[in-house]
Design brief:
The structure is a single chain. It contains nine helices and nine strands. It is α/β, with parallel strands linked by helices. The chain has a single domain, classed as TIM Barrel (Alpha-Beta Barrel), CATH 3.20.20.190. It has an eight-stranded parallel beta barrel, surrounded by six helices. Strand 1, helix 2 and strand 2 form a beta-alpha-beta unit. The protein is globular.
């Protein structure tokens, strides 16, 4: 288990970077804005056809670009050339984002599930993340909803802090998973097995007894996604730090 650096607990973390007026989510413009403001940064990664880690949230391109279909069928070069919304921003590689940040603020990388059912069919994206991280010196950590992804990162990059993205697994999207799988994930049962050192938990479920149990062990508790000062105040009663969007979270003095 590699501890989460204290840098991840000292300043709010901008969800998908500081997007909105500053630029599209997960874009280089949003990353620049987060760095300039002094926030930590949370980003998502999906694989290109040539197994490059691309900074993009969805499996499909439809919501954020004029192109449809899966991210994974396009090369990294082709994805970089696509425009995000009506901006001039393309889909960046993880390597480009890390080069831009250059260690100035913490970077929290969420590795999106590639199995489709939170199962063991993982590997290529994790290898892409590992390649992008080689030689990076700033505060960085990885997390995923899929524990198998984090177990793979433990093999590839044992010195990179690892966490689980967690919640109650009771929403409509989760209903496609078997009940036993949902119960297992909701219990955060793989925390020790995968060598996790933190969780990032749904702010709406922070009263979960399992969260309290981990917090009592000294495990850092991050949370997602806070969208107002009132939500932040409530979340911080449990969470050590927040991932936020849609308002200007206060920075430490």
């Amino acid at each position: 288990m590699t501890p989460l650096p204290d840098a991840f607990l000292r300043r709010p973390i901008a969800h998908r970077a500081l997007h909105g007026a500053h630029g599209p989510e997960n874009s280089l413009a949003a990353v620049r804005a987060a760095v300039a403001a002094g926030y930590g940064i949370e980003i998502d990664v999906q694989p290109s056809a040539d197994e490059v880690a691309m900074v993009f949230h969805d499996d499909e391109l439809d919501r954020l670009t004029e192109t449809s279909g899966p991210v994974r069928i396009h090369s990294a070069t082709a994805l970089e050339s696509l425009r995000l919304g009506d901006s001039a921003e393309g889909i960046p590689t993880l390597a480009r984002v890390l080069a831009l940040v250059a260690g100035r603020v913490p970077v929290l990388i969420e590795i999106k599930d590639q199995d489709g059912a939170m199962g063991p069919a993982v590997g290529p994206l994790e290898h892409g993340v590992f390649r992008a991280l080689e030689g990076y010196r700033g505060p960085v950590a990885v997390m995923s909803f899929n524990p198998h992804s984090i177990a793979e990162m433990a093999k590839l990059a044992p010195r990179v802090p690892r966490g689980l993205t967690t919640y109650a697994w009771n929403d409509a999207e989760a209903q496609g998973l078997p009940e036993a799988t949902r119960a297992h994930l909701a219990a955060i049962a793989d925390f020790d097995r995968v060598g996790a050192s933190f969780i990032s938990h749904d702010r709406r479920d922070l009263a979960n007894p399992r969260v309290a149990e981990l917090k009592a062990r000294g495990v850092p508790i991050l949370c997602w996604t806070v969208r107002s000062e009132d939500q932040e105040k409530a979340a911080r009663e449990v969470a050590d730090n927040i991932t936020f969007e849609g308002y200007a979270a206060a920075l430490p003095a």
